[in-house]
Each structure stands twice: as structure tokens, then as C-alpha cells.
Write a structure and sequence with these properties.
Elements: H1 2-8, H2 16-27, H3 36-62, H4 66-79, H5 81-84, H6 87-94, H7 97-100, H8 105-115, H9 124-134, H10 140-144, H11 149-158, H12 178-193, H13 197-210, H14 216-228, H15 232-248, H16 253-265, H17 272-282, H18 287-299, H19 303-316, H20 321-343, H21 349-361, H22 365-372, H23 382-395, H24 399-415, H25 422-429, H26 431-447, H27 454-467, H28 471-487, H29 491-504, H30 509-522, H31 525-538, H32 544-555, H33 559-571, H34 577-589, H35 594-610, H36 620-623, H37 625-641
Length: about 650
């Protein structure tokens, strides 16, 4: 036995990973053509070592319980990468009696979910199969009784979305380092997405040096980094890599869409529609490919076709800024076409409604109202008419007029029945949004000091959430509810709404910020810390969670902790007006001399000179704290002089 392990250059082991790693390293020193006998000896040693390791596993297996044996086989499957990414392999395991038996099923479920804590690098298709087998979606409350909240939220997130990496594109013999490689890839991509060029390049160079594993997405990130550089020669090098990858993987969504975006930004439109059509053959629902194709169609001047495609895409992503900008462009052409006939009173109601929507979508609200006031809708246009007029009035803060039309819109939707047409399907899908707009109009009136019931508002929001199909829209409705309770300083209710948001989407970052603030006012101080950790884990470059935690430490006079958080924020290059205000407070409290006080005062002077704007993360009311803190510091300076 020792002979073949000596040949491999390692101690005797039953770990297949170690054996395979040693074998690969030895392969670099033995060329089969130059030394066929040496290669034969090495290969025999490798095979004997594997046989030894597997004999040991067989002996261990004999001592396992049925559930332990199942988990053991899951581990074996996971450790063989190309089997791991084959959903049929998992389907075979999950269809065994031990998984579905009433006696063993729950034990298997719990043990398997524990197994996933360290074995989670799996394709989206496998995760969806895991969800179907072990009932993850919809069982957050039950899972929280068994596992820590961050892990439960991770499970709920990973089974819902398609992964960021196409596992099928790995090439060659992967090693036991594959999970480390994937971890580094995710870091690389995150840095690139955040525009952290230095960190991204360091991660890329580390991967190039450390691994022989190949995946085209890593090269794609290199192209993105090069294209983000200022030097034109580097941008062109990035473009060359984009093109080479797109030619090699013509139906790979992420690769082709990155290349398409590059071409569009370079104003290279030839062949773009055909490029995206190839992706859509393989991925008909690809949002990115449909968006890219729509922009190519718009570039060709087919603005009505583009507009229809944009409206379809906005059904899936209602607040996409890129789509809204494209819609505005298409609307300009539609308005230019329809306005002459409108002025001559030659438009039918279909065209009048189309023009009115274009006015609304391009923020020409007065023109929209003026047009709608000129005609009474017939039966086929009544629903759309009240929908649009209610939205315009809501946008310009004429809430009572808005409510009149929005209620009529809601009633018209409730009368609809499916007829298989695209128009009716779209109109019925707006039921949740109709409830939401009604709730918004009522809430605005109440917050402006008019009579009304916030319980009624919240009831409408709950109806909106129940009727809505889109997860992101459900969360946005609850976000509005949380903002309402925040303005009313009803922090316990605000906290409860945040929990509802996170039950729907555990990765919804704003919910952690709002809940952290609520916890601060409710005196739930450990939860302030917990939500700081959750928020900065999700996104460490936004200032608000640091600010809320600092405010808590200031309440308790824990100045060393304040300094620690300020240092962490500075190291991560996190900044904001509120963070600067709190930095000034800290410097003033710890001031040892006049110079320290003047430093704090200078920070506040800069903020005051800058002035409040809608871009500030602080409310206008919160901005007044700057003047208050300046007055305090001036007082301290005067006391020092005396």
C-alpha cells in the first residue's frame, strides 16, 4: 500500500480529493511519450490508491444507518462535480423511498438541509428540485424553528432565483478547488458590478495564478474590467474578448448580452437583432435579450414595435430606468405622429388614449389631463380612461380627484372575466396595483392632515399584496406601508411591515434599514446590531446601517464603538451626509482642544453650505440637526474661551 502512495508523494489517505490532487501534480513531471513506463507506474499507483480509498468507504458505509447512508451518497455525488450539476442524478436520489416515507422523510429533510450548509454550490435547476422535494418555499416560519435566520433566508433566496453562474460551461477536469474557484468568481463579479476596479483586478489575477479551472464567465469579467478602463486600447481589448466569447457561445445569455451592450454603446448596431434572436431561440423569456433586441428595433426606427416590446418588458420590471428611458424615446415619435391629427380632431378613441398615455409616460401631465377632458370614453375605453386619469391626478398630488377615478378603475377591473386576449390579461393583472394606488391616494390625504383611516389604507395595501403576482411589486407595496408608519412614528407597526417584506424577499435590502431604524426607537438594541450585520453583509457600501448603529452607541455613550464603526465605514469608503454629521458629533464629544471643536464645526459648515436636496439620504426634517449641532459646538467654543 505504501508503495503506491509513495509514488504519488503523499501519506496514505482515504480522501479521494487528496489522491486526485497528488496525481495531477505528478502528471506535470511525467510525459507519457518520453517516459511511458514511468507514466504506467504513476497511473497504476493512482488507481490502486483510489481502490484503497473506496474500500475504506465501503467499510464505513456498512456501519451507517439508512439516513446516514443517504447523506453519505449525497456527499459522494456532490464531490463528483459533473455528477453534481446533473439534476437527474439528484432526481434519482430524491425519488428513493427513504425521502418520501412518512417514517424517515422528515429526518432526511432535516439532515439534508444541514448537509446543504456546506454543500451549496449547485445549479439553479438542482436547487429548484431540492425545493420541490424538501418544501423550502413558503415554510420560512417552520424552518426558523430548526435553523438560524440567515441560513433560512439564504435557502429561500437561492431556490427562487436563477444562479449567477452557468455550471455547464466549466471545461476540462475540475479539481477539489472548484468551490473555492466559484467563491472567488462571485467576489470578482461583485467587485466588477460595484465598479471596484482595483479589488476586481486583484481577484482576477489571484484566480489566474491559483487555478487551472476554466469558465468563460471569468474571462467575461476581464472584458468588463478592461472596457471600464479609461484607455481606449484597453477598452478595445475588452471588446475583442466580448466578441470572441459571443462567437464561441452564441446562445449563452449573459455572454451575448454583455457583448450586445458593448456594441450598442459603441453605436455598432449591425447584426444586433440577429445576435439577440439566437439567444432567444434557446431562452425565449430572456429579459436581457428581449431588452437588447427592443433597443436594436428602436434604433432602426420601428418605434411602434419597440414601444409594444417595452410595455411587455415593463410588465416584468415596472421601474426599470433603462426601459423607461427607451419608452420616452419611442413616445416622442408616437406623439409627433399623432399630435397633428389630434389638433385637427381627427383621432378616434384608440389613438386618443394612446397619445394620452404617451403624454403621461413622458411627464406631460397637463397635456394628458387636457386631452382626457375633451372626450367621454365609450364602454371599451372606460377602464383605461379612469386608470390613466387617476394615475395622472395621483402623480400631481390631486388626491381627491385621483381617488374618484381610481375607484372606478378598480370596479371596472373587478367586472372583467378572462377572454384569452392580451389586453384583458394585462388589465386583470393590474388589480393589485389598483388597490395600491387607492391606498396611496388615501394615505397622502391623511398625511396632509385630512380625515381618514390608516387602518383602511393598510387594508387596501393587504388587498394589493394578495392580488399581486409579481414578488417585487408585493414588496414595494409593503415598503410604502412601512414608510407611512415611519412618517407617523408608529415604529412597532413599521417593524411588523418590515418582517412581512423580508418574509417575501429575504434579500430586500431597504427592509433591513427600515427595521433597524424601527428597532432603535423601540429600544430593541440587539436587533439594531443584528440588522446592521445583515445589511452590511448584503451591501457594505451604503451608509445608513452604519449611521443607525452609531446613533445607538451615542445614546449609550459607547464612544469607542462609535469610532470602530466610523473606521469600518472609512475603510470601505462609505460616506454620506448623515455619516459626516455623526462624525462631527463624535469629534466634538471627544474633543480635547479648540482645534478638535473647530474640525467638527468645519464639517457641519460644509454640510450646511451644501444644503439639503432630494439626493440626500436624510429627510429635510432631519437636516435641521446640522444647525442644532453647530449651535452646540459654538457654545462649547465660547465656554473654552471663557
Amino acid at each position: 500500500m505504501n508503495d503506491f502512495f509513495n509514488t504519488l508523494g503523499i501519506e496514505a489517505t482515504k480522501e479521494e480529493k487528496e489522491i486526485k490532487k497528488a496525481y495531477r501534480e505528478k502528471l506535470h513531471t511525467v510525459n507519457p511519450e518520453d517516459d511511458p513506463n514511468g507514466f504506467k507506474i504513476l497511473r497504476e499507483a493512482y488507481e490502486e490508491a483510489l481502490k484503497y480509498a473506496r474500500q475504506k468507504e465501503d467499510e464505513k458505509k456498512k456501519r451507517l444507518s439508512p439516513v446516514e447512508d443517504f447523506i453519505f451518497r449525497c456527499e459522494q455525488l456532490y464531490n463528483d462535480f459533473y455528477r453534481r450539476i446533473d439534476e437527474q442524478e439528484w432526481e434519482s436520489l430524491f425519488s428513493e423511498d427513504i425521502c418520501i416515507s412518512l417514517e424517515s422523510g422528515e429526518e432526511v429533510r432535516q439532515r439534508f438541509l444541514v448537509f446543504l450548509m456546506e454543500h451549496f454550490r449547485l445549479p439553479a435547476a438542482v436547487w429548484k428540485k431540492i425545493d420541490r422535494t424538501f418544501s423550502i418555499t413558503g415554510n420560512r416560519k417552520e424552518l426558523l424553528e430548526l435553523f438560524p435566520e440567515p441560513y433560512v433566508d439564504f435557502l429561500l433566496q437561492v431556490v427562487r432565483y436563477n444562479g449567477a453562474l452557468n455550471y455547464e460551461l466549466f471545461e476540462g477536469e475540475v479539481s477539489q478547488d472548484i468551490d473555492d474557484y466559484i467563491e472567488h468568481y462571485h467576489k470578482l463579479r461583485q467587485y466588477a458590478d460595484l465598479g471596484m476596479q482595483k479589488e476586481a483586478w486583484q481577484e482576477y489575477e489571484l484566480m489566474e495564478e491559483k487555478y487551472t479551472i476554466y469558465h468563460p464567465y471569468t474571462k467575461l469579467e476581464k472584458a468588463r474590467l478592461l472596457y471600464s478602463e479609461k484607455e481606449e486600447v484597453k477598452q478595445e481589448e475588452g471588446g475583442t474578448i466580448f466578441r470572441q466569447l459571443a462567437e464561441k457561445y452564441p446562445q449563452e445569455e449573459r455572454i451575448v448580452c454583455c457583448y450586445g451592450r458593448y456594441c450598442q454603446e459603441k453605436n455598432q448596431w449591425d447584426g444586433m437583432i440577429e445576435l439577440y434572436d439566437k439567444v432567444l431561440e434557446a431562452h425565449p423569456q430572456s429579459f436581457l435579450a428581449r431588452t437588447g433586441r427592443m433597443e436594436a428595433v428602436l434604433q432602426e426606427g420601428r418605434y411602434r414595435e419597440a414601444r409594444e416590446a417595452i410595455l411587455d418588458l415593463l410588465e416584468e420590471s415596472p421601474v426599470d430606468e433603462r426601459l423607461v428611458a427607451d419608452l420616452n424615446k419611442a413616445n416622442v415619435y408616437v406623439i409627433a405622429e399623432l399630435e397633428p391629427d389630434y389638433k385637427e380632431n381627427h383621432l378616434n378613441q384608440d389613438s386618443l388614449m394612446e397619445l394620452a398615455w404617451c403624454y403621461y409616460q413622458n411627464s406631460r401631465f397637463e397635456d394628458g389631463i387636457a386631452l382626457l377632458d375633451r372626450f367621454v370614453p365609450d364602454e371599451s375605453h372606460t377602464l383605461d380612461y379612469h386608470n390613466l386619469k387617476g394615475r395622472i391626478y395621483l402623480t400631481v398630488n390631486e388626491d381627491e380627484k385621483a381617488l374618484e377615478h381610481l375607484v372606478l378603475w378598480l370596479h371596472a377591473i373587478q367586472k372583467l372575466r378572462p377572454d384569452g386576449t392580451k389586453k384583458t390579461t394585462r388589465q386583470m393583472a393590474r388589480l393589485g396595483y389598483a388597490y395600491y394606488t387607492i391606498a396611496s391616494a388615501k394615505a397622502d390625504m391623511i398625511l396632509d392632515g385630512k380625515e381618514g383611516s390608516l387602518s383602511e389604507v393598510m387594508n387596501d395595501i393587504e388587498k394589493a399584496v394578495a392580488a399581486e403576482k409579481d414578488v417585487s411589486q408585493k414588496v414595494s407595496y409593503y415598503h410604502t406601508a412601512a414608510d407611512i408608519w415611519r412618517r407617523k412614528k408608529e415604529y412597532a407597526k413599521m417593524f411588523d411591515i418590515c418582517d412581512k417584506m423580508l418574509a417575501i424577499d429575504p434579500q430586500y435590502y431597504p427592509a433591513y434599514l427600515l427595521r433597524q431604524e424601527a428597532c432603535l426607537y423601540l429600544g430593541r438594541y440587539q436587533e439594531v446590531v443584528n440588522d446592521y450585520q445583515r445589511a452590511t453583509t448584503l451591501y457594505p457600501y451604503h451608509a445608513k446601517p452604519y449611521c443607525t448603529l452609531i446613533r445607538m452607541y451615542l445614546i449609550f455613550g459607547e464612544l469607542d464603538s462609535v469610532k470602530d464603526i466610523l473606521d469600518v465605514a472609512e475603510k470601505r469608503e462609505v460616506n454620506s451626509d448623515e455619516l459626516e454629521l455623526l462624525r462631527a458629533r463624535y469629534i466634538a464629544i471627544r474633543a480635547k482642544n479648540r482645534e478638535d471643536l473647530e474640525k467638527a464645526y468645519a464639517i457641519l459648515e460644509r454640510l450646511e453650505k451644501k444644503g439639503w436636496s432630494l439626493q440626500s439620504e436624510m429627510d429635510e426634517e432631519e437636516w435641521t440637526e446640522i444647525s442644532y449641532r453647530k449651535t452646540q459646538i459654538l457654545k462649547m467654543l465660547q465656554e473654552e474661551i471663557q
